[in-house]
Design brief:
The radius of gyration is 16 Å and the shape is globular. It has 198 residues and is an alpha/beta fold. A five-stranded parallel β-sheet has the order 2-1-3-4-5. The chain contains nine helices and five strands, in the order E-H-E-H-E-H-H-E-H-E-H-H-H-H. It comes from Isoptericola halotolerans. This is GDSL-like lipase/acylhydrolase family protein.
Length: 198
């Protein structure tokens, strides 16, 4: 199995003293039947427009031949569409295009939504997350809402306050990892169910 994670700097755990981020924690808690390869392909400040333009090229050299490899794509969405002034409609379309191309390439895809950030962006991130969830659900692609459960979570908010309200720390990335592990991750991989990862 080869798993490519594409998205912004949240995918590599910026602000995490353990340098694991949510992806490292999730992979560490996943027991694969055979050795798996994972590649976190992050670009700082990336919008969904920029992600849509580069993900195919970046994953192509990491994925193996379809006949011998189980290639999988994780789309880790950040909050930079808001800073860039992209409309929700444009963000929806960008994700839809990524998922449709992945489907045409027969890539099993899993989407992780944007977590809370600055308090003043809360309503816009919530709207963006709901739009992404709708796009994924219409295509029957698993979607992890990280915004709703974390928006008022004490540990998450404490982490953001410590790091300057942009990136979480160890506790925050641990919370994101927990949400991923308990929102269909194992089922998506065809591994024993999520309850066994608790």
């Amino acid at each position: 199995m080869r798993i490519c994670v594409v998205g912004d700097e949240l995918g590599v755990g910026v602000g995490d003293a353990r340098a694991l981020g949510w992806t490292g924690r999730v992979l560490a808690r996943t027991r694969f039947d055979r050795p798996a390869m994972s590649f976190v392909l992050a670009v700082p400040g990336e919008t969904t427009s920029a992600l849509g333009a580069r993900w195919e090229t970046e994953t192509e050299s990491r994925f193996g031949p379809e006949a011998t490899c189980d290639n999988r794509l994780v789309v880790a969405l950040g909050r930079h569409d808001i800073d860039a002034g992209l409309s929700v409609a444009r963000s929806r379309l960008n994700l839809a295009n990524i998922l449709d191309v992945a489907d045409n390439r027969r890539l099993a895809t899993f989407v992780v939504g944007p977590p809370p950030g600055r308090a003043e962006d809360g309503d816009r991130i919530a709207e963006l997350s709901a739009a992404f969830a709708d796009v994924a659900n219409r295509r029957r692609v698993p979607y992890v809402d990280t915004y709703t459960p974390l928006a008022q979570h004490e540990q998450w908010l404490a982490d953001l306050a410590t790091t300057g309200a942009t990136y979480p720390g160890q506790a925050g990335y641990g919370l994101m990892a927990w949400l991923v592990l308990h929102t269909g991750w194992h089922a998506w991989l065809g591994l024993p169910n999520d309850a066994e990862a608790s």
